Amino acid sequence: MITELNIDCLIKIFEILENDHKSLHSCILVNKLWCQCAIPKLWKNPWRNGEKISSQVSLIKTYISAFPKESKEILSENGFELSSIESNSNKPHIFNYISLLRNLQIYHLESSIRYWFIETFNNKSISEYNKLSEYKLKLLIKEFFKFIFTQSPNLYTLNATSTYGNYDLLTDTIENIPQAKKCLSMITKFQCYKTISIEVKLYPAISKICQNIKRLHVGQVEISKDLILLINSQKDLKEIIIEKHFGMKLNNNPPSLNSKENEICSLNLKKSPSTTYLEFKATYFTMQLLPKFENLRELKVKANGSGIYSREQLEPLLNASLKKLEIFYWKCKHSIYLEIFSKFLLLNGQNLNKITIGARLFIDINNSGLLLNSIAITCFNLQYYEGPIMEDNIFEFRKLLEFFKNLKTLRLCPTREYRESLWDVPKQIYFDDLLDVITFVSPTSLKELRLVDTWTISLEPFKNFLFSRKKLEIPIEFCCNPSIIVLTEEICIEYQNNNILKFIKFNNE
Q1: How confident is the model at residue 11 (pLDDT cuts 50, 70, 90)?
Q2: pLDDT > 70: what percent of the chain?
Q3: What is the pLDDT of residues 70-96, one digit of tens each?
Q4: In terms of domain of life, where is this protein from (predicted)?
Q5: Does the chain have fewer CB atoms within 10 Å around its N or its C terminus?
Q6: Would you place residue 506 in the very low, low, confident or very high pLDDT band (cuts 50, 70, 90)?
């Protein structure tokens, strides 16, 4: 019988169901053993996106009912009505639920507390609720912080993002509760979005206590000295993600190479040999810091907003030795220089298996051939290429396809000349010759061909391409803008019916 599974089996099963609250709720009703094994998984991270308000309120009531006597007295003295909670908690809890908490999401906690707060004050409307004492709310949140840090033996994940700016409150609690040091010492995942651009005490406080963080995900306007302190204090930091949060205000001009902020960062950031993943989203990152991450496996830069890089600011890329790099991703809504990327890949492409390069404008479009040539002679493990190509890059493209026997995905964007206005009609760019190269040279491993932007394909080369796939008996997924395929949709459907082609239309992002 399944109900007679041993404890080890049950624990494995419940680990798989960890994010499935409904199934875990059902499991705790099976028998005592199942309940004992499932409850820790259920209460490890009790907050979930999309939880009903009633469930969030019930959760807060459960926690408050287990507050120590001192905390309940503080709340009562400050006007909190706890009689309904007390009357429902005459019997002690079977489990110490807060001791099972391992994942603390501050913004979820704040949201749940506010829902309970509204219900407690006679279900007043949100507008009426906003007039209530902010002091009382902060007092309750503070008591929750004390409760968590004294009762939970270890947290492993901390998302310190505060919707209502309670960073100082959190910091003060961490610094003044002795048990917080042990509770937070084993944090391996730390996340925090500062919704306004201010310096806070939180990072220095976390730096003193949490030195085992493996994944750091922060929302920043720029790389600050406090963030550098947090990074430097880690013993085995694997992943760093820094991004601009939607609530942050950015200066439209990136920091200059000689700015005080960048000078501090460059001087103070220690080498981080354990870091294998580095990602920057919509925020400026000085390339002078890149050599600090010598064992990087994955580098992602999504530059928009103020993430405008001049040639001078990109050139430090060429000083980075990233011989273990496997994934390189760079997309921006501004301009980039293909010559610099060509040289970077030539220096660091030995282990790359995935390359993505995209921009609104390529300054030196004639260097697209140089880029392809650098990839062809260096990146022998390449499986995925998304990037620019010119219609006359026949030789370089052929060389690339001949060398790469494991290439699975091609996503090709035409390198265009500069247009004075987005409304200017772009020059028609034909994909025919490049498609012929794919037809006669492409590796049998190729599974996806995506044409980004407005290429033009003639009917005959497209027929030849599909016929070659039929002869190989190897299906391929073909994706394109609808404007490309006006003359060829009928033949696409024919090969699709023969299971040779999976045809997908998409609009340009």
Answers
A1: confident
A2: 83
A3: 998 998 888 787 776 765 555 667 788
A4: Eukaryota
A5: N
A6: low
Q: Is the model more confident about 120 or about 189?
A: 189
Structure tokens at 86: 């007390």
Query: Any residues with CB less than 8 A from the CB of 248 and at least 6 apart, and which?
Result: 194, 195, 196, 197, 219, 220, 221
Structure tokens at 165: 């700016």
Residue 250 confidence (pLDDT): 45
Token pair, residue 354, equals 């995935």
pLDDT tens digit sequence for 343-399: 999 999 999 999 999 887 788 888 999 999 999 999 999 999 999 999 999 999 999
> How many CB atoms are located within 10 Å of the residue 134 CB?
10
Q: What is the pLDDT of residues 96-127, one digit of tens each?
A: 889 999 999 999 999 899 888 888 766 555 55
Residues in the chain: 509
SS3 136: helix
**Among 381, 429, 376, which Cα is nearest to 406's?**
381
The model's confidence at residue 35, banded by pLDDT at 50, 70 and 90, is confident
Residue with tokens 């494991």: 406
Q: How far is CA 263 from the centre of its chain?
A: 27
Q: Where are the alpha helices (DSSP H) in 214-337?
A: 225-232, 260-268, 311-314
Question: Which residues lie below 8 Å from residue 393, measured CB to CB, with a gap of 6+?
Answer: 368, 369, 372, 434
| pLDDT (0 to 100) of residue 81 | 75
Sign of the dihedral through C-alpha 323, 327, 333, 338: positive
Q: Which pTM value belongs to this model?
A: 0.86
Q: Which of 294, 267, 484 is nearest to 286 (CA)?
A: 267
Which residue, 19, 40, 10, 37, is CA-closest to 153? 40
Which distant-in-sequence residues (6+ apart) come within 8 Å of 483 by Cβ?
A: 454
Cα distance between residue 252 and residue 405, in whole Å: 44
Alpha carbon distances (Å) from 181 to 68, 102, 207, 221, 281: 20, 15, 11, 28, 31
- 3-class SS of residue 348: helix
Complete DSSP assignment for 161-197: --TT--HHHHHHHHHH-THHHHHHTT--EEEEE-SS-
Separation of alpha carbons 383 and 328, rounded Å: 12
Are residues 254 and 279 in contact, defined by beta-carbon separation less than 8 angstroms?
Answer: no
